Amino acid sequence: MFEIRPASPADRAALYRICLETADSGEDATHLYRDPLLVGHIYAGPYLEFEPDFAFVLEGGDGVCGYVIGAPDTAAFEARLEHGWWPALRRRYPDPADVPPDLRTPDERLAHLLHHPHRANAAVLAGYPSHLHIDLLPRAQGGGHGRQMLECLFAALREAGSPGVHLGVGGRNTRAQGFYRHVGFRELARSPEGSLTLGLRL
Asked: Is residue 192 domain-resident?
């Protein structure tokens, strides 16, 4: 039996664990990072901290096995992180700016992101101001749970007045791309490296 429920502060460790175990284009990235918390600091923690009304977890079997998290106003969320989330992490993780990008370790690449976080494209935000991340462990995949979790978040975003939501997906993660297109997302932009920005009207 699986159950979708609002996330709580007590779910923080589970979100960080799932974030790490799906960080390699949907596969387990535990072996890639020396610091197991770095991925979660960027892609999970700030949502639980600043947008708890838009964070849901999937619980079943041995505990929490998936989550969907988002922010209704991406620009405002980025501003809040700049003042209330990144500064403390930047003190803990030095910027490896003196290390050439192609020589950085996976940890150093994430540390660089802490100091130079991604900023959403203004053209995308004009029609799709919200954004989300969703990750499910293998045992929770394939049963329609991902779609159900997205619908929970979509309902919360609609209630908050959002007209559209976007997300990013890596070029290698063809399984995720297919899933997002199946639930209604369409391509909005593609980076030179091949990663996609997909959007859905709410």
From this structure: no
Closest listed residue to residue 129, CA positions, set 166, 81, 78: 166
Q: Are strands 130-136 and 164-169 parallel, antiparallel or unpaired?
A: parallel
Q: Encode pLDDT of 3-28 as tens digits.
A: 999 999 999 999 999 999 999 988 99
Question: What token pair was written down for 172?
Answer: 């290698």
Q: Tell me the per-residue pLDDT of 53-73, one tens digit each, with 9 for 90 and over.
A: 999 999 987 899 999 999 999
Identify the three-state secondary structure at position 34. Answer: coil
Look up the domain containing 103 and give its range. 2-163
Number of domains in the chain: 1
Question: Is residue 112 helix, strand or coil?
Answer: helix
Element (H, E) at 183: none
Distance, CA of 70 to CA of 53 (rounded, Å) = 9
